[in-house]
Design brief:
The complex is a heterodimer of chains A (279) and B (291).
Chain A (H helix, E strand, L loop, with lengths): L1 H33 L3 H4 L14 H7 L3 H33 L5 H13 L3 H13 L6 H7 L4 H12 L3 H9 L4 H12 L1 H17 L2 H6 L8 H12 L6 H31 L7
Chain B lengths: L1 H34 L17 H8 L1 H35 L4 H12 L2 H11 L6 H8 L14 H26 L3 H9 L4 H12 L1 H16 L3 H6 L11 H10 L4 H29 L4
Helix pairs in contact in B: 1-13, 3-7, 3-10, 4-7, 8-9, 10-13, 12-13
Classes of the chains: A mainly alpha (279), B mainly alpha (291).
Chain lengths: 279, 291
């Protein structure tokens, strides 16, 4: 019996290892191709590893600094959007859970309805609004049009509503106002929810593509995905610069994998507590 | 007095989020609906009211029929494998019990990486002449394919990338759901002589059905939003083989500047999404039997 269990668990591990390998393969392939010569990339049958690692592909990809600029554009806009989102979602969630104001129920149902609307519906009008505001081709326009998230609001609303009301009550008796209760009592108690949302929002912004690609038409404003796509269509068609393209992909993808590796506890928790949204 | 103060506080606290939401979500949704009855082209000052013409035009357009069919194929073709494979992986994870952290990390990783970068990598894997995928196909004796370059295999190729990316997402939900299945129930069934398959179909599967349902709907809704991989891999081609509703919307709105027609497409997308969401809330209210 014992032995049978052992064999079975071995098989399961084997299966899981195999699936993991399949899922990791594109990343591995991306990396090995980023250090191959052109001839090695085009070799039939494919070569798994290069004879000598061609790190100069990375130098080529980063040489003129445009990729670093794209990465900087993505990173700084993502950080600013994330910070704004955490701030305004916390305020909103606090109002929903701890302030008794008129119109709350209507507001809540309006937000619910908006939540299920696909973002697509908003693109044309938002585009027109931004161009009327003179904010086309600006990071400011991109950031203000992306700086509110209903998901974040619902997430923090659930977090705040799980905190014992007595704590808020005690703070109020001590004379604390709403602002103080939110930022000095509730926020420190919900630190891990903030970390989760911070990571998820950052990843979402850093990876976003469609909406920014509609707004930001000038090269120096590109975000990283747009820059890569442009580079890919310009150089990829004839397969001449695959090594460089793969190096660029690595530069973009590996920092995110690292971020995931260190933040996975929060990221995975945040994702499955999606039930925060339905209710 | 107290009430007034609370009202003011409420207003001030919702203001930082409600302004961007109003300007870039709520009003645009309303505008989109209105634009769908016009012939606006995004540039001219003149806007003509068209009634339902955009809608009837779409329904009569053979291309639009193909777009709807593609959307359906994409939705089913991404949702079903993601769910089935995600469930199987989660079951295996649960069976292995120890030392599964590394698998979980690896399988989930694609989900957090940018679709554009990863689609670029996949386009090289799919390359028909020198790509690794056709090499493997030859190696195991399967027929080669043109993958992205033929209208017959392009959809499957895009689906492979999509499933690869979202498999970890469903797996995480299933791991959580399977962990919550009462262990003593399974054990007592085993003592009564129930085999593994019976225990799975009669106990585990029904117990995790709310999760399955939730995932089916969420995955379908997100499949309606798929854009990045299509843009990088096929641009909707070859010959419109991978043009889904959202991609069609993008082309009509931002390439052909048929804003009115595009808005009608957006409204259809909204209707489908809203129906799916309503079904989700309705049924999850009925079937959630543990929490």
């Amino acid at each position: 019996m014992r032995r049978k269990k052992g064999i079975r668990s071995l098989l399961v591990h084997f299966g899981l290892a195999f699936i993991s390998f399949l899922l990791a393969f594109p990343f591995l392939w991306m990396f090995t191709n980023s250090v191959k010569t052109k001839a090695e990339i085009w070799a039939v049958p494919p070569k798994l590893l290069p004879a000598v690692a061609q790190w100069n592909n990375y130098a080529d990809a980063l040489a003129d600094g445009t990729f670093l600029m794209y990465m900087w554009n993505s990173a700084y806009t993502a950080v600013i959007i994330t910070v704004i989102m955490l701030f305004n979602s916390a305020m909103f969630a606090y109002a929903l859970t701890n302030i008794h104001f008129r119109g709350k129920t209507i507001l809540l149902s309006l937000i619910m309805v908006t939540y299920i609307m696909p973002a697509t519906t908003t693109y044309v009008p938002s585009y027109v609004i931004l161009s009327k505001m003179g904010l086309m081709n600006t990071h400011l326009g991109y950031m203000i049009s992306s700086c509110a998230s209903i998901f974040n609001i619902f997430f923090l609303r659930t977090t705040f509503s799980q905190i014992t009301p007595g704590i808020v009550e005690a703070a109020r008796i001590d004379g604390a106002g709403h602002w103080k209760i939110l930022w000095w009592v509730l926020a420190p108690m919900s630190r891990s929810a903030f970390v989760t949302l911070g990571l998820l929002s950052f990843l979402g912004c850093y990876n976003s593509y469609l909406w920014p690609s509609l707004l930001l038409r000038r090269k120096e404003k590109y975000l990283v995905s747009m820059g890569l796509q442009a580079f890919f269509t310009a150089e990829g068609a004839y397969g001449l610069k695959w090594g460089t393209i793969m190096a660029a992909c690595c530069v973009i993808v590996f920092p995110l994998l690292l971020l995931f590796l260190f933040g996975q506890r929060w990221i995975l928790n945040g994702i499955t507590s999606d039930s925060a949204v339905k209710e | 007095m107290q009430n007034k103060k609370e009202n003011l506080a409420g207003l001030l606290f919702i203001l930082p989020a409600i302004i961007p939401l109003l300007v870039f979500w709520i009003l645009p949704v309303v505008f989109s609906g209105a634009l769908s009855f016009t012939d606006w082209d995004m540039m001219s000052e003149k806007i003509r009211f068209m009634g339902l013409k955009n809608y009837t035009g779409l329904l009569r357009d053979a291309n639009f029929g193909k777009v709807l069919k593609n959307t359906l194929v994409f939705a089913v073709g991404s949702t079903v494998p993601t769910i089935v494979l995600g469930m199987m992986t989660a079951l295996a994870m649960n069976g292995a019990r120890k030392g599964t952290g590394i698998y979980r990390t690896v399988i989930f990783a694609p989900y957090i990486t940018p679709m554009v970068a990863i689609s670029v990598v996949w386009s090289w894997i799919f390359e028909p002449r020198v790509g690794i995928l056709n090499f493997i196909m030859r190696l195991v004796g399967l027929p080669e394919s043109q993958w992205l370059q033929s209208s017959r295999s392009a959809m499957v190729s895009v689906l492979i990338v999509t499933v690869w990316k979202s498999l970890g997402w469903t797996m995480i939900f299933y791991m959580e759901a399977i962990r919550k299945v009462p262990q003593n129930l399974l054990e007592s069934a085993a003592i009564d002589g129930a085999g593994g398959f019976w225990r799975f179909t009669k106990i585990t599967l029904p117990m995790i059905s709310p999760t399955t349902f939730f995932l089916v709907i969420m995955s379908t809704i997100s499949s309606l939003q798929a854009y990045d991989q299509i843009q990088v891999l096929t641009q909707g081609g070859p010959a419109g083989a991978t043009r889904t509703l959202l991609y069609y919307y993008y082309q009509e709105a931002f390439q052909n500047f048929n804003t009115g027609k595009a808005s009608a497409v957006a409204v259809i997308l909204v209707i489908i999404t809203v129906i799916l969401s309503l079904v989700e809330t309705r049924i999850s209210r009925k079937t959630v039997f543990y929490h």
